[in-house]
Design brief:
By secondary structure, the chain is an alpha+beta fold. It contains three helices and five strands.
């Protein structure tokens, strides 16, 4: 049986995050504004996508991000509550594709597509270890 066999199109998850200074561009680059950073938003979208399918995977399996195509549409200040949403739009033999978006309570701040691939954790870690042993 394929690891993606039980994942339904339409599976969805949402998460709410309060923007803190350590999530801003200024946290990493002092000369930049204190607004929600694009890489942090993408990370939160990936975490939300993983949450949407976690319970459908076989035991011992996880998913890893393999494609991110996201547009950051608007700046979000510290203290704002960001809601991320990920919905499965396609399930293949080796990948799961999500429509992802983020809102900050004022407007949509991000949208795009994210693809994850299922991997068997034990096998994945062996490959990582083999790289370290070279």
């Amino acid at each position: 049986m394929k690891a993606t066999a039980n994942i339904p199109v339409g599976a969805v998850a949402t998460q709410e995050i309060t923007v803190t200074r350590d999530m801003t561009v200024a946290h990493f680059h002092e000369h930049m504004p204190e607004v929600y950073g694009t890489p942090i938003m993408i990370y939160h979208l990936e975490v939300t996508a993983e949450a949407a399918i976690r319970d459908y995977l076989p035991e011992g399996w996880i998913t890893v991000g393999v494609v991110v195509n996201v547009t950051h549409l608007a700046a979000t200040p510290i203290g704002a509550k960001v809601t991320t949403r990920a919905e499965v739009i396609e399930v293949g033999d080796h990948t799961i594709t999500f429509a992802v978006e983020a809102h900050d309570g004022f407007e949509k701040i991000g949208e795009g597509v994210h693809v994850r691939a299922p991997v068997e954790m034990e096998r994945f870690l062996k490959k990582v270890q083999a790289k370290m042993d070279r």
